[in-house]
Amino acid sequence: LKDEISNGNFREDLFHRINVIPIETPYLKDIKEDIPYLIEYFVKRISDSNGLKPIIINSKNTVFYDYNWPGNVRELRNLIERVVILASGKNDDVDKILSESLKISSVKEINNDDAFQFPLKEAREKFEKNYLEIQLNRHNGNVSKTADYIGMERSALHRKLKSLGIN
Q1: Cα 41 to the chain's mean position, in Å?
Q2: Do 31 and 100 lie in a common domain?
Q3: Which residue from 51, 83, 128, 140 puts its CA 20 to 30 A from 149's CA?
Q4: Do 31 and 95 belong to one domain?
């Protein structure tokens, strides 16, 4: 927020008013071992508050651990709320709703060591594909927002997505 104050985007008096006791909260991506407990808590709370039958969500599902969680715990809570409401007590629909909601790519991420095993062109394509899939996921599939964020024209991004086989 201090940067935002310097840029004139946030009021300094408001900052001092809310900054009585600073609380550091870790990113969800850094405490993934807490995900099963959070899922259990959110399922119970959301089911109870909506009068719905609690569903069973497999907290060991890799979708929870492969995802970067840019929205942190709020994003996880929103996802669980979506699943609880859309599944309407039908456990069979849970995995489908999870996958569609997060739009998780089936393509494996390549790490730096793996990248050196490919010719430059292929390594670049793999990186670009992975990068764009992550950015699209971060922006909920919105191509315009993704293009703005990565600094590309929307039409150029559409062409790039098509050339990389990203739907």
Answers
A1: 20
A2: yes
A3: 83
A4: yes
* Per-residue CA distances from 140 to 1, 68, 99, 163 (Å): 25, 13, 13, 20
What pLDDT, on a 0 to 100 scale, did the predictor assign at position 114?
59
Question: Which residues span the domain enclosing 165?
Answer: 106-167
User: Per this entry, what is the length of the chain?
Assistant: 167
Query: Two tokens at 162?
Result: 């098509």
Please state, as a whole number, how many other Cβ atoms lie within 10 Å of the Cβ of residue 30. 10
Six-digit token string for 119 = 């010719």
4 occurs within a structural domain? no
pLDDT for the residue 105? 37
Concatenating the DSSP letter of every residue in 130-161 gives HHHHHHHHHTTT-HHHHHHHHT--HHHHHHHH
pLDDT value for 120: 85
Ranges under pLDDT 70 in the chain: 89, 103-115
Distances 60 to 55, 71, 78 between C-alpha atoms, Å: 15, 20, 18
Query: Which tokens is 129 given?
Result: 């594909």
- pLDDT given at position 89: 65
Q: What is the residue type of 145? A: K
CATH number where 116 lies = 1.10.10.60
Per-residue tokens: 98? 């999870």
State the total domains in the chain.
2
